[in-house]
Write a structure and sequence with these properties.
Structural class: mainly alpha
Number of helices: 6
CATH architecture of the largest domain: Orthogonal Bundle
Helix content: 55-70%
Order of helices and strands: HHHHHH
Strand content: under 5%
Length: 165
Amino acid sequence: MVTKGRRSRTSFTEEQLEILVQAFSQNPYPGYTAKQRLAVEINAEESRIQIWFQNRRARHGFLKRPKKKLDPSKDHASPKEKIQGKQDRRCRTSYTSSQLQTLKNAFTENPYPGIDSREQLAEKIGVPESRVQIWFQNRRSRLRIQRKRGLEGALDRRQNQGQDL
DNA sequence: CACCTAACGTAATCATTCT
DNA sequence: AGAATGATTACGTTAGGTG
């Protein structure tokens, strides 16, 4: 693959690790604000925190996965209870059409940009590099799905006529 | 070299926004 | 309500640092 130029491997200090491990033991699924708080606390990028938690959950054969529904509808008898409601995720970024145009152009040039290209793009359109990375991941994913659909369609059409094999 | 683990890939899914 | 698409997860792979 043309996956060269990854970001240089960060090595966390023992102090940082201590805090991360501690946080993980208390909650392996931190929300966005928690991750942000950690990022500030140990002076690292939030995206690195996110990756760190992902890797840690994977490695430690973690057998507990997040529940699907939490069924919030129940009672309105506790009005001062859920003031914050909402699940804690990063706010969805909305791209302007010109930003999208830039991203799409870059994508056709290279669907697997390395860290340098991603950072350059991020700078250019004024969006965090981590968002650019996610954008490329989603774009590749959806392109693959589209391709797959096209192939299935072709196969279906073929089967309707004369299926051999 | 072997081992650990950050970085990064895909696939599936959740959630928000728009039509 | 459903289509688009951004965000998050599980899980697998690639590669950097160290004993």
